[in-house]
Design brief:
The complex is a heterodimer of chains A (about 375) and B (about 260). With about 375 residues, chain A is of the alpha+beta class. Chain A is built from 13 helices and nine strands. In chain A, the strands form three sheets. Chain A has a four-stranded antiparallel sheet with strand order 2-3-7-6, with helices on one face. In chain A, about 50% of the residues are buried. In chain B, helix 2 crosses helix 5 and helix 3 crosses helix 4. Chain B has two domains: about 210 residues, Rossmann fold, CATH 3.40.50.620; about 30 residues, no CATH class. The longest helix of chain B is centred in the first third of the chain and has 17 residues. Classes of the chains: A alpha+beta (about 375), B alpha/beta (about 260). The interface between A and B is medium-sized, with 17 and 14 residues.
Chain lengths: ~375, ~260
């Protein structure tokens, strides 16, 4: 099996088997239910916490498992087979997007208060960076946090925030020194039961099993002690946290695409048209091979990134390029599979139809292709 | 209280089993192996008994080739304290009785108060080893257990077995052998912590000679395995509804003899 060097040990295999069983028994059968509810049942976070899956990389001091990224990669690969892209997204927001900065830069007291319950699955976390007026251009955010003694007073709004309704706290990025450029942003933990906070959910075309919303902050007061790391270092800390976020679709994408490929092939082998199965027609056989070329290449690219994460190397260039490659590969696979399914591929419950809308987000969320290419261009000194 | 759980490694329930080239065994290429599901209930119950009593030891045991270590490791990951692997060429073609004999020899050495097994392994569905083991030991035995309660002194166990329409309840003096039925509990998944912890737990390799046993000729020989005949294809009855229904009823009555 490819990736033997990264996650081929008996422990990795045992972990994969246990995670698969859990995902296939407790999450996948409820995929439609979560879609209808528009979010995962919060109880699944607690179950994931009990299984030790929400803090694989984190220090055992805070309830984590203290393991390297390879184990986390196994988790992300299995999680993506839960048959609900929205749920996978919601969970990975907790593990890879809203908590890494807290784990890396947070004070002891802050980690005790917010990281420990997040790892246990008692708290759900969300990452609040994007705004109605600024997504790709992170530096353009306007939400302000102003010091008032021992308090931050927050005003503004955040947009397209996943885990909106489920979240117990947010990892918020706010402007704290407008004159200081990149050195004027701060990451602050905002409990969602703080007065002045409210939200509205958004009606997405895909990833319907996750609760994505628009957040409002109206004189929201939180203690200055809720600052993650150093005040005014928020932009840099968030850029660091983005690398974890961008790894998620890179790791999960090739596995999800392969699964859709398999389901579609099964269909093409059974579906007879003009006297023979679709999969026996050269035009379709080539489609499957062409897709597999892309999936295999993406899988290797993902393995390269995972290896670097395990080794603790800077992945910024690799993950930026990989995210673009994987997201486009997935969109190409999804639209090709819709075509192969024909009419049934246009019915919502069809896996290709779901992938078609779910995966459209890939080139937008977590850093749009255009931003990823800018990052890569800078690092390649173009 | 020491509890011994006998488990068997079997092909994953999702496996499409194929008959091997010799016509007497299955083709094991590409098979994913798991702990037989009924045995998982036994492991879970043993762990619960230990947890409830706040002390004790749970030992997993299995007979089979090298690959069986993985199944034992999975039991250790669930929480068993140690494992015993009966792994010897002398056992390469064992039948249920020889398996029971080997297990009985280990039970005699280990002297647990309770042995738990699954009601049957899901590969060959023999369901014989548990009874044979109890017989060889001279211990009481109850099959298809849905509930159990070991008394506070660890002297007896009350076991309820599934029967048609209800439960049949027994009190068995310990030591005893119980065989778990589905519904006894909901087995836990091995946690990541358990999986990493299992690395440090002992899996003892035991040979036939260690138990004073030699190669025993199997009393049960498999003469051949046959795959089920492929299902005949379905038939679509064409035509308008009244005549199609008429034809359907005729076909059910005369061809299928179903009505």
């Amino acid at each position: 099996m490819a990736g033997e060097d990264i996650y081929g040990s008996p422990e990795h295999q045992a972990f994969r088997a246990a995670t698969r069983k859990f995902v296939q028994t407790e999450l996948a059968p409820r995929a439609r239910e979560f879609d209808e509810a528009g979010r995962p049942d919060k109880a699944i976070f607690r179950r994931l916490g009990e299984m030790g899956l929400l803090g694989i990389r984190y220090d055992p001091k805070y309830g984590g498992q203290g393991l390297d990224y390879s184990y986390h990669a196994v988790f992300l690969e299995e999680l993506t087979l839960c048959d609900n892209a929205g749920v996978g997204m919601g969970v990975s927001v907790q593990t890879d997007m809203a908590t890494p900065a807290l784990a890396r830069f947070g004070s002891e007291a802050l980690k005790e208060r917010y990281l420990v319950p997040a790892i246990r699955g008692e708290h759900v976390a969300a990452i609040a960076v994007t705004e109605p007026g600024a997504g790709s251009d992170v530096a353009g955010i306007k939400t302000r946090a102003v010091r008032d003694g021992d308090w931050w007073v927050i005003n503004g709004s955040k947009m397209f925030i996943t885990n909106t309704a489920n979240a117990d706290w947010l990892c918020l990025l706010a402007v704290t020194d407008p004159a200081a450029g990149y050195h004027g942003y701060t990451q602050i933990i905002v409990p969602t039961d703080t007065p002045g906070f409210s939200y509205r959910l958004l009606d997405k075309i895909g990833n319907r099993g996750s609760d994505t919303g628009l957040l409002f902050f109206d004189d929201v007061r939180v203690p200055v002690a809720n600052t993650i790391g150093d005040a005014n270092r928020g932009f840099q800390q968030q850029m660091n946290q983005f690398q974890d976020e961008r790894m998620v679709p890179v790791v999960a994408g090739p596995v999800a695409a392969r699964r859709l490929w398999e389901l579609t092939l099964e269909h093409a082998q059974q579906r007879v048209a003009f006297g023979k199965p679709l999969a026996k027609m050269q035009v379709n056989r080539f489609k499957f091979v062409e897709m597999m070329i892309q999936i295999t290449a993406a899988q290797e690219v993902a393995h390269r990134c995972i290896r670097k994460m395990v080794a603790g190397e800077d992945v910024t260039l690799d993950v930026s390029m990989a995210k673009v490659f994987v997201a486009n590969m997935k969109q190409y696979v999804a639209t090709t599979c819709v075509q192969l399914f024909g009419g049934s591929g246009y019915i919502r419950e069809n896996p290709a139809a779901r992938a078609y809308v779910d995966w459209r987000l890939g080139t937008i969320g977590g850093g749009a292709d255009e931003v990823m290419k800018e990052v890569a261009a800078k690092l390649l000194r173009i | 209280m020491k509890i011994l759980v006998a488990i068997k490694q079997v092909p994953d329930t999702a496996t499409q089993v194929k008959v091997g080239g010799d016509g007497k065994s299955i083709d094991t290429a590409g098979i994913t192996w798991i702990v037989s599901p009924y045995d998982e209930y036994a492991v879970e119950e043993a762990l619960r008994i230990k947890e409830k009593r706040g002390q004790g030891e749970v030992v997993a045991i299995s007979l089979g080739p090298d690959r069986v270590r993985e199944a034992l490791r999975s039991c250790l990951a669930m929480g068993c304290d140690r494992a015993i692997h009966l792994n010897d060429a002398a056992w390469s073609a064992v039948d249920t009785l020889a398996t029971a004999r080997a297990l009985a020899a280990v039970v005699t050495q280990e002297a647990p108060q309770l042995v738990l097994c699954g009601r049957q392994a899901i590969d060959d569905d023999m369901g014989a080893v548990t009874a044979q083991l109890a017989e060889l030991l001279g211990w009481p035995c109850a099959y298809w257990i849905m509930e159990e309660a070991v008394d506070a002194d660890g002297k007896t166990v009350r076991a309820a077995r599934q029967v048609e329409g209800g439960l049949e309840v027994f009190d068995l003096p310990l030591p005893a052998v119980l065989a778990a039925q589905k519904g006894l509990n909901e087995p836990r998944y091995p946690t990541l912590k358990g999986i990493m912890g299992a690395k440090k737990k002992e899996i003892k390799d035991v040979k036939a000679a260690d138990l004073g046993l030699g190669a025993e000729p199997a009393q049960l020989a498999v003469l051949g395995l046959e795959a089920l005949p492929p299902r005949p294809p379905g038939r679509i009855i064409e035509g308008d509804v009244p005549s199609a229904v008429k034809e359907l009823v005729r076909a059910l009555r005369e061809d299928a003899k179903a009505i």
